[in-house]
Amino acid sequence: MVSIVVVILLAISLIVFLRQQKDIARRIASQRDVPRENLVPRHYKSFTEVEKTLWAAVQKQKRSTAWEDVRFKGSEPEFQIVRDYLRGVREDFRRGHRIFGQVIIHSPEMNLFAQLEWQRVKSEVAYYRWCASAWLRLQTGGISIDDLRQLTEIVATLAYRVRTMLTAFEKSGNLEFVDSILRQS
Amino acid sequence: MQLTPSETLLWWLGIGLKFLLCALVFYRRLYRRLPFFSFYIVLLVVEVTVVWWVYREWGYRSFPAWYTYWSASAVVLFARALVVAELSWTSLRSYPAIWSLVRKLLGLIAVAVLTYAAIMAIRNRSPIPGFVLTAEHGLEISFAVILVALLGFGARYKVALGPVERNIVIGLWVYSAFQVINNAFMSQWMNRYFHWWVSTRVIAFDIAMLVWIAPLRKTLPPAEPGPTLLSESVAVRLLRELLAQMREITEEMKRITRSKWK
Fold first, then answer.
1. Does A106 touch chain B (CB under 8 A)?
2. Rounded-to-integer distance, Cα B12 and Cα B6, Å
3. Which of A33, A139, A153, B158 has its CA 20 to 30 A from that of B166?
4. B161 neighbors B221 (Cβ within 8 angstroms)
5. Does residue A140 sit in the same domain as residue A162?
6. Are residues A16 and A60 in the same domain?
């Protein structure tokens, strides 16, 4: 019986992984002609702009609540700005996470790879913890600007790490390596 | 044992597919890309031909038939293990740290399964079938896990397998999974289930061969250029520096957070 359960679990994993494999192949093919600057995380940089737009929208409605206490709910019109920003930042995280992964698997030493992977897992945990708490807040009172700031910090840290990695490789003359990483991430 | 018409049909279908697959492997020159897989396919054809000839010459219940069948099964099983190792190598060879770990892990699994099979064979009244069947049980579940882990690795680090390699993984996995389930039923209802056990085995392998044949119908796509490699010394130096930098940043952020709360 145990072996049958194991096979069922493996079958489910196989289907999931095969779908992901197809997505990877499709994505690599689709970003062949994408400009290089669009292959790195970039949406998170617009946080200040988004905050300003949200501030203006809230002011227009003459809400008296303190800015830090304002909650954005799915039903409100300004939530579209939040939604667009979140979509961009989510893409940033995924892209950064992929680039990070692509770089560290080239590590020649297992110990070094494990330590870098640990750093990657930590940023992954922080991101998914934020997603879980944001989902909960959306179900209850809505998300605040501080929540968005926290997410931006998580993604900006990852993006900084990725940029530092790529710059270090570029400076050491490995331009081709950086290009292949970006195209395959 | 007398085969029923449907079983005979299945056997002939299997034989036909083996020859077709072998012809396609050579026609598409797959041996250049995956030599062990090609060797395995050739072995399948040789196995079926030799076993058929021995059965015809000495009869199904003769000693030569018995030894030939079990020896051929052992050789084919070993070749399949080499195919799994080859797939792991083709997918992971560009990643030295991971490949060195996986290589050790594969070696460890092989040693553990073969030692266990040898112990079981010594205890068994018929050592050869005992060894082959126990090794097969252990290896099939190991293959199923290794192949899924290989795809899982690809999903985690966004490394895509080529279409041919992907289909070989699927085919091997389907056969191994069927065998694991099949063996679980076989151990429960040994005699009553024997006919089913044999037929399921043949059907599973026919499905696997159809999956392998599918990408070989067309000309093989050119092999994807592997990721550009870095020199080992440069990679170690840069990644160490980056790790140290990351740790510094983390410490700095922790310090800032602590000072905020004070």
1. yes
2. 10
3. A33
4. no
5. yes
6. no
H or E element at residue A144: strand A143-144
A107 and B239 in contact (C-beta within 8 Å)?
yes
Q: How many CA atoms lie within 13 A of A4 on its CB side?
A: 9
Residues A2 and A63 in one domain: no
Give the domain extent around A24: 1-30
ipTM over 0.90: no
Are both A43 and A91 inside the same structural domain? Answer: yes
H/E stretch holding B8: helix B5-27
Tell me: the pLDDT tens digits for A75-132? 777 778 888 899 999 999 999 999 999 888 888 888 889 999 998 999 999 999 999 9
Please give the Cα distance from B6 to B2 (Å, whole number).
12
CA B150, CA B131: separation in Å to the nearest integer?
A: 27
User: What percent of chain A is predicted at pLDDT more than 70?
Assistant: 98
Whether A94 and A3 map to the same domain: the answer is no
Nearest to B114 by CA among B84, B88, B137: B137
The pLDDT value given to residue B227: 63
Residues B92-106, mean pLDDT to the nearest whole number: 86
Contacts of B161 in chain A (CB under 8 A): 21
- CB contact (8 A) between residue B144 and residue A164: no
Using an 8 Å Cβ cutoff, are A166 and A181 in contact? yes
Task: Provide the residue range defining the domain that includes B78.
Answer: 5-218
* Gap between the Cα atoms of B80 and B39, Å rounded: 10
Which of B47, B243, B221, B6 has the alpha carbon at shortest distance from A122?
B243
Q: Which of B91, B98, B99, B157 to mutate to test the interface with A (most CBs of A within 10 A)?
A: B157
Does B250 lie in the same domain as B212?
no
* Closest by Cα among B91, B82, B74, B103 to B40: B82
Q: 3-state class of A143 per DSSP?
A: strand
- Mean pLDDT along residues B199-221: 89
Q: Tell me which long-range contacts B184-188 makes (C-beta under 8 A, separation of at least 24).
A: B184/A1, B184/A3, B184/A4
- Contact predicate B226/B90, CB 8 Å: no
Number of domains in chain A: 2
Judge if B202 and B235 occupy the same domain. Answer: no
Inside any domain, residue B223: no
Q: Across the interface, do B230 and A28 touch by the CB < 8 Å criterion?
A: no
